[in-house]
Amino acid sequence: MTGNSRSNRTIIIDGVPMPDVLDETMIHDVVHGFYDEIRRDDLLGPIFHRAIQPDAWPHHLAKMCDFWSATLLQTSRYKGRPLPPHLAISDLGEEHFRRWLKLFRVTVRHICPPEVTALFMNRALRIAHSFRLAVAFSRGETTIGIDPIAEKDL
To answer: Are 86 and 138 in contact (CB under 8 A)?
Structure first.
């Protein structure tokens, strides 16, 4: 799937038909805009700069476009396991997930119409929660009390 193309089938996400306006171009714009913000951020930038070498950014961005395409447009382009690289970041904590979600929300609100913003944010909040649980579990910490982050609390 390239450009703005989408198949003629109706995609249903969480019981809601996918808005026609969401396409590969919008996903590209969200991913690239979001990671531009991440790279400039005082809290998250240093983590990403340590984890991703400058010449590896094009590959990472393409992989994240594939991830969001698979997540929202139900393509099968994403091949990978997103959790292990995050588990390898020893100082990854609650403040990082909250900042990630705040920057993501700013980006999707800037680029997407409200119904698409809601879809992106719903998925991002779910992903953040599962990653927070996995990080705690991998460190031998209790997961009791790790409640999902609500968008209203960002």
So the answer is: no
Q: What are phi and psi of 127, to 5 degrees?
A: -60, -45
Topology of 21-153 in CATH? Globin-like (1.10.490)
Cβ 39 vs Cβ 49: under 8 Å = yes
CA 17 to chain centre: 20
Sequence ranges of the domains in the chain = 21-153
Contacts of 70 (CB under 8 A, 6+ apart): 76, 77, 78
Pick from 94, 115, 120, 97: nearest CA to 29: 120
Q: Can you list the alpha helix ranges (DSSP code H) found in the chain?
A: 24-40, 45-51, 57-72, 83-87, 94-111, 114-138
Identify the segments of the chain with pLDDT beneath 70.
1-10, 12-18
The model carries a pTM of 0.86
